[in-house]
Amino acid sequence: MSKTKITIIGTGNLGSSLVKGLVDSGKYKPEQFTLTRRNLLKLDSLKEQGYHVGNNNVDAVKTADIIFLAVLPQKINSVLEELKGKLKPNQLVVSLVTGIKVSEIEAIIGNKTPIVRAMPNTAISIRESMTCIATTPSNQKYIPQVVEMFELVGETAVINEEQMTSATALCACGIAFFLRAIRAASQGGNEIDFHASEALKMAAQTAKGAASLLIANHSHPEDEIDKVTSPKGCTIAGLNEMEHNGFSSSFIKGITISAKQAKGLYNENK
User: Fold this and answer.
1) The domain that contains 254 carries what CATH number?
2) Do 134 and 203 share a domain, yes or no?
3) Which residues, listed in sequence order, are joined to residue 53 by a DSSP beta bridge?
């Protein structure tokens, strides 16, 4: 059991998903966390579970070993200004904020406190996140500590910091993209023969099985597709119809436009 004290600044959907996943891993207890949010009423359920909650960010970081920044990009500068001069060299800041670089955080709070960036997704709440982690050369020694935490709640990849915007689009936004694909599959199932609830269960489990095949077999999607497509069969007919209507190209364009949008989220609010 870890004795690390953790503060989450801005405990919205992502922040609350993170603490739930870490506690469910069995290595942390609710009382090790201090959670902040402007609207404390939205933290009532977490308070009842034993988490410390508050809306004073400066007080919240005083005894923390690790501080997660989980606010929106348009709010991060004001939060950093609050914390300026309040952080210690023995604390670690982990930024989950889209678009803002380590150097931009350091420009406000200084470079005495180490900073690492991480981009998980909301599947962190069930310990199935894909989390990308990056920092500057001077902070590299803190990467293993952050990787160890996030491996409790899913898979991790250490990448270059300039790739973090792309990671946001593929992994964080990607949750929504795959959910929309599952929704479309369930609607197709509803149209052909099944009640909506039946179709959704079938589509979701089929999607889970497809992803699990790739992970378990370390295979390429086309290798697995080849196993279920026979000449003049129904699978290839369906795949070709989807491609004729732009399935792959639409998915690719969605990811690239999300990356473009993510790149400007912080800068447009400076």
Assistant:
1) 1.10.3730.10
2) no
3) 35
**Per-residue tokens: 264:** 């400007």
Q: What is the DSSP code (8-state) at residue 71?
A: S
Q: Characterize 42-74 residue by residue with b for buried, 16 or more Cβ atoms within 10 angstroms of its Cβ, and e for exposed.
A: ebeebeeeebbbeeebeebbeebbbbbbbbebe
Mean pLDDT of the region 5-10: 97
129 Cα distance to chain centroid: 6
Quote the DSSP letter at residue 170.
Answer: I
Amino acid at 129: S
E-assigned strand segments in 122-253: 129-134, 154-158
Given a contact cutoff of 8 angstroms between Cβ atoms, the answer to whether 71 and 102 are in contact is: no
Task: Report how far residue 107's alpha carbon sits from residue 81's, in angstroms, rounded to the nearest whole number.
Answer: 10
Tokens at 54, concatenated: 């508050």
pTM of the model: 0.91
Element (H, E) at 9: strand 6-9
Residue 269 pLDDT exceeds 80: no
Structure tokens at 37: 């949010």
156 & 65 share domain: yes
Same domain? For 204 and 244 the reply is yes
Cβ contact 36:8 at 8 Å: yes
Range of the domain at 250: 174-264
Instruction: Check if the beta carbon of residue 158 is closer than 8 Å to that of residue 52.
Output: no
Instruction: List pLDDT tens digits, range 253-263.
Output: 999 999 999 88
Name the residue type at position 215.
Answer: I
Element (H, E) at 33: strand 33-36
